[in-house]
Amino acid sequence: MALITKSIKGTQDVLPSESHKVRFVEQTALEIAGNCGFREIRIPVFEHTELFQRGVGDTTDVVQKEMYTFLDKGERSITLRPEGTAGVVRSYLENGLYNEAMPQKLCYLVSCYRYEKPQAGRLREFHQFGLECLGTASPAADAEVISIANDIFSFLGVSGLQLEINSIGCPECRKEYHKALHDYFESRKEELCHTCLERLERNPMRILDCKSPVCSEIAKGAPKVTDFLCDDCRAHFEAVQGYLKAMEIEFTVNPSIVRGLDYYTRTVFEFVSTGIGAQGTVCGGGRYDGLVEEIGGAHTPALGFAIGIERLMLLMEKQGLPFPEREKCALYIVTMGEKASLEAAKIASALRKEGVEVQFDVVGRSVKAQMKYANKLGAQFTVVLGDSELESGVVRLKNMESGEETEVALSDFENAFLRASLSESLKGLEELGVDADIDIDELMNKNLF
Length: 449
Ligand code: ATP
Ligand code: MG
Fold this sequence. Notes:
Elements: H1 16-34, E1 39-40, E2 46-48, H2 49-55, H3 61-66, E3 68-71, E4 77-80, H4 85-94, E5 104-113, E6 125-134, H5 139-156, E7 161-167, H6 171-186, H7 194-202, H8 213-220, H9 231-246, E8 252-253, E9 265-273, E10 281-287, H10 291-294, E11 302-308, H11 309-318, E12 331-335, H12 338-353, E13 358-360, H13 367-377, E14 381-385, H14 387-392, E15 394-399, E16 405-409, H15 413-431, H16 440-445
Parallel strand pairs: 1-5, 7-8, 12-13, 12-14
Antiparallel strand pairs: 2-4, 3-4, 5-6, 6-11, 7-9, 9-10, 10-11, 14-15, 15-16
Helix pairs in contact: 1-5, 5-9
This protein binds adenosine-5'-triphosphate and magnesium ion.
């Protein structure tokens, strides 16, 4: 095979053998957030570059090094979204969502683009599930948002994730902190990496986020932001912790968490795993009371988080966690001849309307080849349809797992199949230990399909 080109470095295909797992994780996240009133919002993949420069922050790695920015044919500078928050806030403002019930609780599934060195858990195209709660300064909202991420992980059965929280204060208390940090790092200037030297002048807090071993070692001795919080910020941070305790959510306070993005204020948090190597942060979030104003709206306290879907999937695979099974073909109709094929099309069409996955030969293969294909698909039932069956009006429905065959009148085939399929599902439930005291006749009569 001479493929004309391969996929772009740092991108991933999700194949049919995996896609149902991702869908399950995404659905779970949407539902759990939905239980707290978060509704899905969909935003474009690209925005004007300025949105991210302002909304993510000029001094961040994301903006300085990682953005996919290009000029379109109209010479406008466009950027593929590196994260979801800035776009969601832009949409919230542009569409006047602040006129609706406040706080606005929004959640999203987005692909994100960052020019980073690809490695396990670090891609150039990756996906996030995120949410934003706009219009509340209350610590109860901080705890609610954190609890949603926590609930998603526990529902999925993920273990060993540490919730680390910190408060990075407000612009007021941060002024003094920045000064203290600047003085500290200034005294160790010779040892800092090139990027951190720049950060020293522009935003010394970024140095705490540096991944170079030397810088992070120096950062360990830096003044702690929690020692510089003003009374309001301290009270807020304590209240958040009070709520988390009340909700029995375990956490540790980690003063070195500052988050990579500029717009965070007060509460910041991460869910970190030691199980997936260096890329251990599965979820990052926090409060960003200054962002909405930065993007051109009225002062609006808000907060949110984003979960990296690929990192979460990596962790779940590593921990061997269960996923629902992939959908299976419920019925494969093996056909012989044109008449049978027409009849199969009719049956398939009727059962598909009932929500059943039915397939029949659309290639023109031999009976043997069709049976082989049905086996490959893992079809639960098969039925053979040829001239003699059409003539006699009787077919044999075969349960592929048990090998058991049942004679069924063609005129009653759809009903008989639904019945057999339902009884198979109930057996499955019983095997799982579920007491399924369900009368199939009653179910069929209620027309629940
Ligand atoms: P990191 O410190 O690992 O670079 P970050 O602080 O840049 O993460 P955020 O901007 O907070 O990450 O994004 C939220 C989440 O998105 C991260 O916790 C992570 O799970 C995921 N994520 C971020 N960058 C990538 C990437 N390049 N590839 C895969 N997932 C990513
Ligand atoms: Mg990053």
